Every structure is written in C-alpha cells, then in structure tokens.
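Hey, resending since the last one bounced:
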Amino acid sequence: VQLQASGGGLVQAGGSLRLSCAASRRTTSNNGMGWFRQAPGKEREFVAAISWNGGLTNYADSVKDRFTISRDRTKSTVNLQMNSLKPEDTAVYYCAASRSAVATSDSSLYAYWGQGTLVTVSS
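The structure tokens again:
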C-alpha cells in the first residue's frame, strides 16, 4: 500500500488548508486512517484519526474544533480540513493506514505511512 499526501503549503495564521491522502489500492477501506505531524526538532505527534467506515473520529486536543478528518472509501482517500491555523501547527503532516479498524492515536498500530506534506503557518 502506498499513501500519497498532498495539499500542504504556506498560509497565514487564521487561514485554512485541506490535506488529502490517496491510497494506492482499496485494501485500506477496512482500516482506520490517521494523520500525524512532526514539527522541526520535535517528535511526531498524533493529529486525527478516523475509523474504517468513517463513523468514529479521534482528535488531538490541540486541534479539536479546528480540524476535521473525513474519508471517501470508494475513492480510497482521507482528508484533513484544517481551519483557524496557528503558527504552532507548522509541521510535516503524514497520513497513515492502521492495522486496526478503529480511530486510534497509537502510532505503533499504523503499518503504512505516506511521504509527508509540509504545512507552514506564518504569524
């Protein structure tokens, strides 16, 4: 399974971006999917996850009420709508496919990772 993330870029604080993740094949349709990020000099952290059927979502406290994760199983895509962006959201964002069907924040349960897309939020 290959995951291709896109949609990153430079945006001013308070702006919005929409990240997309396309899977190479539909084997991810029964897997939970997630987004993680890694800022310069920091460890990778969980951002958001969605269950296999989209029925459950899970968010890091730092992005709740600002970010929304969604998926289209027919197209094998997962999106992350990011609103009210802050400079501290600056990071490389990675999409990942979980070994489980649930919306987990545990990175050790994710078997496949995309290459990352850079999001830069200026103040």
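The chain has a mean pLDDT of 94.

Sorry for the duplicate.
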